[in-house]
């Protein structure tokens, strides 16, 4: 994961909304789509961007995938951002 990929991923308001929802706990695509004015396939595409950036993780639960915030991905982003607090 690069900082560029993370910033690109969080630049979209829908993806930020998904992250805010996932911060409250793991959720499926259907659960996440219920809070957005976009289709489930669009939510899946947004989640793919977040997955590729390392900001969320996914695990199989039967036929569903459950998504969660990736602490590791955000830790790397925080480390990059922290360098500016001392500047």
UniProtKB/TrEMBL annotation:
HTH arsR-type domain mapped to chain residues: 1-87
Gene3D superfamilies registered for this protein in UniProt: Winged helix-like DNA-binding domain superfamily/Winged helix DNA-binding domain
Gene Ontology molecular functions: DNA binding
Top-level taxon: Bacteria
InterPro entries according to UniProt: ArsR-like_HTH, HTH_ArsR_DNA-bd_dom, HTH_MetalResp_TranReg, WH-like_DNA-bd_sf, WH_DNA-bd_sf
Keywords: DNA-binding, Transcription, Transcription regulation
Record PANTHER family: TRANSCRIPTIONAL REGULATOR, ARSR FAMILY, TRANSCRIPTIONAL REPRESSOR SDPR
Family matches, as NCBIfam families: HTH_metalloreg
Protein name: DNA-binding transcriptional ArsR family regulator
Protein source organism: Aminobacter niigataensis
